[in-house]
C-alpha cells in the first residue's frame, strides 16, 4: 500500500463525516486507542483503530453504513 494508513482511513471517513471531522476523528482515536499520530499508524494497528472508531460511527451514520465503511478500511489497509 503506497498511501499512509491514516490517510486511507481519513479518506474513507470523509465521505460520511466531511474532511475536517474525519481528520479530527482519526487524530483523536489514533491517539486515544493507540497512543500514535495518524502518520505513525501501521496496517497491524488498523483492527484496534476500527474498533475504537466503531461506536462513534454507529451513532453518526448508523450500524449498517458504519460496518460497510469499516470493512472497506480494513480491506484497503491490508
Walk me through this protein's architecture.
This protein is mainly α. It has one domain. It is 76% helix and 0% strand. The chain has four helices and no strands. It has helices at residues 5-17, 19-34, 46-61, 63-76. α2 crosses α3 (46-61). The longest helix has 16 residues, at 19-34. It is globular and about 30 Å long. The termini are close together. The model has no long low-confidence stretch (mean pLDDT 96).
Rg, nearest Å: 11 Å
Distance between the termini: 8 Å
Share of β-strand residues: under 5%
Give me the count of strands. Answer: 0
Alpha-beta content class: mainly alpha
- Give the SSE string: HHHH
Task: Tally the structural domains.
Answer: 1
User: What is the global morphology?
Assistant: globular
What is the tally of helical segments?
A: 4
Record keyword descriptors for this entry:
mainly alpha; 4 helices; 78 residues; single chain; 76% helix
Short description:
With 78 residues, the chain is an all-alpha fold. The chain contains four helices and no strands.
